[in-house]
Amino acid sequence: MVEVESGTAHDNNSHFGRPAAISAFGGHRITYLIAGAMTAMVYYALLGLGLLVVEDGVPYLFLVVVGHLMTVVIVYPWYRLVVFRDSGYSWLVGYLRFYVVGLSFLVASVIGVPLLVELAGIPILVAQGMVIVASPPLSYAINRRWVFRERGKV
């Protein structure tokens, strides 16, 4: 990425190191959408791979849970370093808060996917996609206001 300096001739408080690409994306909302797409791709790849490898040897809900756990571990650094650019909390505290938010969506998947698969006959990955569609706006609001809020703001 290209490093940029912001500031004026009258202002000696210029800010070095802010990636120009992130600024060009318009901040949190765009980088959050990118992160959401990345998260969905990682999750679908893990879930799809799990479904291919184990076939019917393991219940698909087990794969939903394992895929979720692995995805959260993989994507948390991106959310912390790029989307919300730190929160003032330690990595562990931030991760635990991030995971608590993720648990609500895991619960939605564990309830919604079987309903769609078993009752409506929808394929597993399609059903999971349907459950996920509503999650980005809610997740953004919770992450922005609770998980990655500045330490002094309550």
Automatic annotation (TrEMBL):
Transmembrane intervals: 32-54, 60-79, 91-116, 122-142
Record's subcellular location: Membrane
Domain of life of the native organism: Bacteria
Coiled coil regions in record: none
GtrA/DPMS transmembrane domain mapped to chain residues: 32-148
Membrane topology: Multi-pass membrane protein
Name used for this protein in its record: GtrA family protein
